[in-house]
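Please think about what follows:
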Amino acid sequence: MRRKMANFGVSPRLAVLLGESYRTVELALKELVDNAWDANAVTVEVQLPTAMAPDAKIVIADNGEGMNEKQVREDYLRIARDRRKDRGTRTPPPLSREVKGRKGVGKFAGIIVAEVMAIETKQKGAAARFRIDRKALEETPGDIARIEVPIETAACDAEETGTTITLTHLAQSLNFPTPESLRHALAPDYAREERFTIKANGSRLDHLQVAGHKAVETLSVPGVGGVQAEFVVSEKKLPKAMQGIVIKVKGKIVGGPRFFNLEQDETVPRTCCNICLACCMRTSLKTKRPAPAG
């Protein structure tokens, strides 16, 4: 009996399937903003089209650390790279942020929105430009590792750093976000960050975007520690995706919005469940280790 070795092959369509895992366009764009956070950006500017014209585009530009050509080849274009293993769980000082990107597939978020994702990134006086083409990924036979990605390099101002992603040939079948809906998607993670400014079509992301009655409470939970709860009771009913309570642990949202059975509580009027509880809430959970026994 003879034995021959075999290897896994990875279809280029994998990248498309990864991009399609995002439930909404807002969540896909948020993934690209998360990448800017991990790059120690201080500002991110998102430009959304005002009308779905054939030449409409979405631009996400940050002033983070950027990438050089080697990083593009060896890090960015490597699928499922775990940044935490390569560079640790926090970004470099002085920001030292908790890294959000953990699966190494966020780069494909843009191709759920557009046919073409063009990237320009600048670092230490050098600019690198390349693009990811959804059609090429869908139609190229064989292994994704064999797809060639041309990278153009050029000199730039040494003071310029950061990455700009331009999404073009936008998918006409999708419901595109407004600046307001995008801010709602980003607010739970970023609205209170003092050293991370996000603008959508020139309008800055503010804390707790929902108009209504706001309240902030600091609670002490036995066995857990301090919990900061921030509530907004909306002035009007919101879309279902924006209703409920979300929980953040170490800067990351855990699960989706839920009511935690408040709608079943007999002390809460039904009209309150239908209207007042249609709100945007955030709970920041700061866990503490229990004190040693004795």
The CA atoms of residues 263 and 273 lie 6 Å apart. The chain has two domains: 13-200, 210-285.
